[in-house]
Batch of 3 targets.
Target 1
Amino acid sequence: MNAELVESMFSRATGAGIDPHAYRRACAAVATPADWAPACAAAALRFRVAAEQHRGVTQPHPGPDRADRGSAAARYPTAPPSSVTRGENLLMAARWAHLATLIPDSDHHVHAAAADSAAEAGFSLLEPDSRRITGRDFTGIRRGPADAARTVIVVPGLDSSKDEFHVLADALVRRGAAVFAMDGPGQGALAATSTVTTAYPVVIGGVIDALGVAEVGIVGLSLGGYYAAAAAALDPRITVAATVSGPFRLDWPALPDPVGDLITRRAGSREAAEAFASTVDLTPLAPALHCPLLVVDGADDAIPGVTDGALLARTAPRAHYLRIPGGDHLVGNNRPAWLPTVADHLTEGIS
C-alpha cells in the first residue's frame, strides 16, 4: 500500500463523509498513485450495486392494529426504509466517485459524471423536494425547504466539487436553510467541458438569479473561499459569508509543482494557469466585503505560495478569524471545531 498517499487523503475522505474503516479497506490495495482512482471507483460501484439491491423492497407492515399502524408510520421517514437505504448508498457512491477524481486518470471525467448522477439520484430519494438547477456556467442541487427563509450557496475549490461537501450542506439543512451546492467552471460535473475562470463572481451572480431569492449566504472552501469572498465583496445580495481554507493571494512562482500542475490541468494550459493565478488576490476587494464574514483556517495548512485567510480577516470590515490548532487543509481532521460555528454563522447571520 502506498501509505503516504493514502494517509494524505485520509482527512479529506473522512471530512467528505467516508467512514474511516471503509476508507482503509478500500485503499488497502493502493500501491501506486495509478491505483487510487480505480480503487475509489470500485468502492463507488459497490455502493451503487448495494443501492440497486434495495430497489423494489417494500416497507415493513407496521402491524394489524390501526392505532399501532399509525404510530409506527409516524416513526418512519417520508420515504420507505428501502428508499432511504438506496438513497444513502447512492450518496456514498457519489462521494467515492468524487474521490476518484482527486488523482487524475484516463477516466477522470467519467468519475466526475458518476458522482454527479449518483448524488442527484440519492437526493431525489432522500429529499423529494430537492431539484437540479443548471445555468450556462453552473449546475447543482438545491436542497432544503421550498419556503426556507435562508438560502446558502456552497462553493467548492480547485479540484473539489459539490459532492465533497454533503456533510456541510447537511448541517445547513438541519438548521432550516435551503442549500445550493454548486459546480462552476472547471469543477466537478463541468470539469470536462470548462476551465477555471476569473469571472467566477459573475457565475455566482447567475446562481442567485436562478435561485430567485433576494439575498443569500455563501460559503467557499479552498479556492472556493476566494471565489466566495470575491463575490461577497461585489454582490450586495450576499449578506453573510464564510471561507474555509480559502487563499487570500496566490504567488505562482512559489507554488509547489503539484499545485501548479493542478491549476494547469484545470485552466487548460500553463499560460492560462499563470494568468489565472495572478488574479487570485483579494487585496483590492477585501475592504469592500461589508457583510459578516467568518474566516476559518487550519493552523497546519501551509502551502508555499498561498497566503491564508488571516489577511482577509484583518482587512474585511466585519470579519472574524477562527484558526484551528492542528487543522489541515479543509480542516477535515477536526470538523467539530468549525463546522457547527460556520453553519450557525451562515444561518443566523441572514436577515
Note: Residues 102 and 159 are 7 Å apart (CA to CA).
Target 2
Amino acid sequence: MKTDGIYLGASFALSGPVEKLDATRLPVRGDLAHIRLAGTVFVPHYVAPITYRSGAQGATLLKTPGGETLATLEPGAGFDVLDIAGTHAWGEVTGGGIVGYITLTQLEASV
C-alpha cells in the first residue's frame, strides 16, 4: 500500500552480489538512475527524463564530458536527458540506447 509516496508493508532484502551494470547501456550512475530502473537498482535519486533533440548538425555522444566518442547522433535524433551539469547533459539515446554525455550546445528542446 502506498501512502504519501511511501510504500507501507514493502519488503526489500539483500539477496547476494549484484552483477556489474553496463554503464553504456543502462542509465544509472552512483547518484541517480532513470525512473524505469526503480526497484532494480539502488541509488539516492530516480529521474524521469526530458527528451531533447540533436541539433541541425547532429550531436556527439561522449563517454565522459570532453572524453571518448561513443556515437554520433543524426540531426533530430532523440536524447533523453537525466542530468545537466556545466556544459553537458547526461542521459541516453531515446528508446533505451547508448548512455553518455552531449554538449548542451548540440541539443534543442523537443517540441
Note: The chain has no helices and eleven strands.
Target 3
Amino acid sequence: MGNLTNDFNDYRSRMNSRIMETSNTNIKRFFALDTTTYAAGALDVKTKEMLGLVASMVLRCDDCIKYHLEKCHDEGVDQDEINEVFMIANLVGGSIVIPHYRRAVEYWDELNG
C-alpha cells in the first residue's frame, strides 16, 4: 500500500484506540453497531460496502469514502463495479460529489497499484 492508505489506516487505528480509552458505553455500542451492520446478512458484505461507499460519497465524507473503498477492494470489487458505484454516487449526489470522486479515484488507484 502507498502513503495515502498507510497514513489513513495508521491515523484511524491510533485515534480509534484513543477514543475507546475514554469513551462511554454508548459510543462503544455505536462502534459495535457499525461493525455488525456491515457483517453478512440478507445482503453480502461486498454489497453492503458498495452501499456504504455510495452513501459516504453522497454525504461527502472523505474518511468514510477511504474506509469503504478499502473494504470494497478487500471484498474483490473490480474496476467495472467501482465505476458503477461512482456513477450512482455522482448521480444521486450531484456535481458537489465530483471533488470527492477525484480523491476516491486517487485512493482506489493506490489500493490497486
Note: DSSP finds six helices and no strands in the chain.
